[in-house]
Amino acid sequence: MSTVDKNDKTERAERLSVFKTYKLYVGGKFPRSESGRVYEVTDAKGNWLANAPLSSRKDARDAVVAARKAFGAWSGATAYNRGQILYRVAEMLEGRREQYVREVADAEGLSPSKKSDTAKAAAQVDAAIDRLVWYAGWTDKIAQVVGGGNPVAGPFFNLSSPEPTGVVAVLAPQESSFLGLVSVVAPVIATGNTAIVVASEKSPLPALSLGEVLATSDLPGGVVNILSGRTAEIATPLAAHQDVNAIDLAGADDVLAKELEIAAADNLKRVLRPQPVDDWAATPGIDRMTAFLETKTVWHPTGSLGASGSSY
Amino acid sequence: MASVFAYAPAPESRGVVDIAPSYGLFIDGEFVEAADGKVFKTVSPSTEEVLSEVAQAGEADVERAVKAARKAFEKWSALPGSERAKYLFRIARIIQERSRELAVLETLDNGKPIKETRDADLPLVAAHFFYYAGWADKLEHAGFGSNPKPLGVAGQVIPWNFPLLMLAWKIAPALATGNTVVLKPAETTPLSALFFADICRQAGLPKGVVNILPGYGDAGAALVAHPDVNKVAFTGSTAVGKEIARTVAGTRKKLTLELGGKGANIVFDDAPIDQAVEGIVNGIFFNQGQVCCAGSRLLVQESIQDELLDSLKRRLSTLRLGDPLDKNTDIGAINSEEQLSRITTLVEQGEAEGAERWSPACEIPTSGYWFAPTLFTNVTQAHRIARDEVFGPVLSVLTFRTPDEAVAKANNTPYGLSAGIWTEKGSRILAVAGKLRAGVVWSNTFNKFDPTSPFGGYKESGFGREGARHGLEAYLAPSSPEGER
């Protein structure tokens, strides 16, 4: 980021930094917004940081198509494989830690020259990385915790297993541009869903950069799709979209959340209402995972009454 | 085909049940009149006989009932779980003691055969109370946090197809978790819920913990919208479910919905045909097909279509339609005139769209609401009878060639409640079950229920699960020690 270069004034001729063109992350690719629009992203003091894509309804719909296309393979992948990939994302983030500390500091109005501010930004990035590792470990355990065999009173056995709901629209929290973002995306994909993520409207850059990490972490294209722009503008078509199965309203204010929840009723989307989060760094429960899981119960006759009391 | 054997009538005695000429609403432990004095009649669908006159709840009654439930909540939720458990065990026992009476009552008010109320509904009703009774003092082990708390007042709206069973599915977990209840039974089947109110009295349940408001959709809507209701549970049509989801939008009310279905019953060429035929019959003609998880779409592998249909038609010809109180009756009455006309309309549309209609020779009683078991062949996925929930004894037959095609056709619906798989090959069962987007998959069986097994749908069949450990979640606010969440 340019802000670091400013502190680097020395005798030698000042080097002009290379700006980054921030792009969306959809279907494993980095397109610009179909609308050709961008909006200005500034730091807390109002200094220009970058132009972020201002996604349109069409971008949202394209992202749904990409997420649906990716769902079969991702939900069908072994839980072990999904865990490996989530862990890989953590590895890749760890390698780019400094970049994200810088981006988070810029996004959230923390000064790179103040030690305590840098520490705050670093703590968030570290917590985000640790969060991914935590969810990586959940992929092959959640089914054991929330599913199981049921002791039915009759000559049958049945098994209840959790399955991903499908395509989930995730409105990332507005204030926690990176830790909050990772905290809402990881549980969705850990459980085998695919996601369309609407980045924090004010601070979208860490989210857009996350796409770069995801693209190089063995995560199949389309599993996570990241859009930036006006939350209300992008979320409205997602909440009404008939091929979206669930929506996480974390990043919506009360008025928007209600409007989106009403739209979501049209195809009975699973809705996770905005949950108050005091501290994104605290260990989350499993609620964010179970919110986007279905339970399937499969019955089969056993031909006997009980495991040992065979009638044969 | 006329019946080979003539059966002598074997009616169950009506004497075991004493239906009063009129009933009130059950609020705060008392039977009371509706605030506006309104009443409605409930009739027996098999004879159109008026069984009783029942108070009709309105908005003011919802207000009263919610207030009573709120007041009762304080003490009820503070009771040790082990004490709540004992109340539920008492209720379960009394249901067992009175099960014959309740079975006859349900058959009279609903029209379903006595063999179903006696052998399916009532045992399951008691089993659900027993099951959830045992959870009441073990909630910290249920996996919803170490200190799970009830939500408050639960507003519950249930349908007419399994009046007492749906009541049990809703009330048992609500009470076990420490919530109090305002329940609205359906307008065509209010009686068993009112008898349940009497069971609450016998069990000594504290006043206001359970309130019963017979009434119409407006009472249900008022209950769902009431600002002091913390939890809404609904079983019924998808259209109403969507309306309820809109109503609770933007509130903190927890919502679970059990909605419609269009279950696929998939029969592969290696299936045990005779068993499959029994399963198909059970899947769609159980409770006259008025079952949200009914297997209303038969998907049969093309190579065995003729053989299967011959067997199925032969079997349908042996079904006995008539007096629901007769112990030998397989097909009872349709629940209401309104429902009968809905079925009739959809079936006529099926014929108009070119599907081939078949029914066994079947004598239809002259009074009451009846519909002969009906089979449609030459059905395509575009036909309305293959897409819309008929909620009647009407089976649409479609065919497939490969397992992939079966899965694609089975999933080609906005619903996702149930499915059946018939094959001798275990790996095929698991492979197909894994791909079906449905909450319950029955393999080589159909329409089996058990309180330990979660039930509920994918997609537009609603959300949340009832029954089992999963069913507790709908009535609990997860909590854990400070700072952990």
TrEMBL record, chain A:
Matching InterPro entries: Ald_DH/histidinol_DH, Ald_DH_N, Aldehyde_DH_dom
SUPFAM superfamilies xref list: ALDH-like
Database matches in Pfam families: Aldedh
Aldehyde dehydrogenase domain segment(s): 34-271
Molecular function GO terms recorded: oxidoreductase activity
Keywords annotated in UniProt: Oxidoreductase
Name under which the protein is recorded: Aldehyde dehydrogenase family protein
Lineage of source species: Bacteria, Bacillati, Actinomycetota, Actinomycetes, Kitasatosporales
TrEMBL record, chain B:
Boundaries of every Aldehyde dehydrogenase domain copy: 31-477
PROSITE patterns the record matches: ALDEHYDE_DEHYDR_CYS (PS00070)
Pfam name, any one: Aldedh
Top-level division of the source organism's lineage: Bacteria
SUPFAM superfamilies: ALDH-like
CDD domains: ALDH_F16 (cd07111)
GO MF entry, a single one: oxidoreductase activity, acting on the aldehyde or oxo group of donors, NAD or NADP as acceptor
Keyword annotations from UniProtKB, A to Z: Oxidoreductase
InterPro entries given in the database record: Ald_DH/histidinol_DH, Ald_DH_C, Ald_DH_CS_CYS, Ald_DH_N, Aldehyde_DH_dom
Protein family (similarity comment): Belongs to the aldehyde dehydrogenase family.
Name this protein carries in UniProt: Aldehyde dehydrogenase family protein
Protein's organism: Streptomyces sp. R28
